[in-house]
Design a protein that fits this description.
alpha+beta, about 200 residues, binds copper (II) ion, three-stranded mixed sheet, Immunoglobulin-like, four-stranded antiparallel sheet, single chain, transmembrane, about 35% helix, about 15% strand
Length: about 200
C-alpha cells in the first residue's frame, strides 16, 4: 500500500516537473510592481529576462501614455512611422507568440527619448527539435543472406546418434530454463529492494 502511494507521488512530481518546463510566463514590464513610464530602464530589465514563445508582456501605465509596437528602425529613432500595433487604456497584455525580436515605444512626444522604449528577444523553444519535412532518408534494407540449405538447422539439432555416449538425464533445454528462472527471481528481488528503497 505504501509502495503504491510512493509510486503515485513520484509520478505526480515527474508530471509537475514536465509541466513546469512549458508554463507560459507573464512578464510585468520593468519588473514586479513596475509601471511603463518615462523613468525608463526597460532594456536593462529585458536583458535579464528569458522570454519564450507563449509568454506575455504586461504593461501597466497611466492612460496618458500608450504602448506602440514598432519596427527596429522606429525603435532606434524613437518614431512611430510604421506602427505594428497601438495599445491604450493603462493595462496592456501583449502575447509573444513566436521567437524573434519585438520593439515597443510610447508614441507621446518626447517619452521614448526619455526612456519609454523596450526591446525583447523571444528565444526559440528548445523542447522540440525540428525535423526537415518532405525529406525521407531511404536506408538500404539489407536482405538476409540466404543460409545454405540445411547446414544451420543440422548443427542446432542435438546429436543423439552417438553409439558410445550414454544419454544424459538432464537435457540442455532443461538446464537453460532453470537458469532463466533463477535470474528472473534475482531481478524480482532487486526490483522489490529498489521499490522499498524509494
Ligand atoms: Cu508616454
Amino acid at each position: 500500500m505504501a509502495m503504491v502511494v510512493k509510486a503515485v507521488l513520484v509520478a505526480v512530481v515527474a508530471v509537475a516537473a514536465l509541466a513546469q518546463l512549458t508554463v507560459a510566463v507573464d512578464h510585468q514590464v520593468g519588473g514586479s510592481g513596475a509601471t511603463w513610464a518615462t523613468s525608463g530602464g526597460y532594456d536593462s530589465w529585458s536583458g535579464k529576462q528569458k522570454f519564450s514563445p507563449g509568454d506575455s508582456l504586461v504593461f501597466s501605465y497611466s492612460p496618458a501614455h500608450d504602448v506602440v509596437e514598432v519596427s527596429k528602425a522606429d525603435y532606434d529613432a524613437c518614431t512611430a512611422s510604421k506602427v505594428v500595433a497601438r495599445y491604450t487604456g493603462g493595462k496592456t497584455t501583449v502575447k509573444l507568440t513566436t521567437a524573434g525580436k519585438r520593439y515597443f515605444i510610447c508614441s507621446i512626444t518626447g517619452h521614448c527619448d526619455a526612456g519609454m522604449k523596450l526591446q525583447v528577444n523571444v528565444a526559440a523553444a528548445t523542447a522540440a527539435p525540428t525535423k526537415p519535412r518532405g525529406q525521407r532518408s531511404v536506408a538500404p534494407v539489407a536482405a538476409p543472406a540466404p543460409a545454405p540449405e540445411g547446414s544451420a538447422t543440422d548443427e542446432q539439432l542435438p546429436t543423439v546418434s552417438s553409439p558410445t555416449g550414454t544419454p544424459t538425464p538432464s537435457s540442455p533445454s532443461g538446464s537453460g530454463a532453470a537458469s532463466i528462472g533463477a535470474s528472473a527471481a534475482v531481478a524480482l528481488a532487486m526490483g522489490m529492494a529498489v521499490a522499498l528503497a524509494i
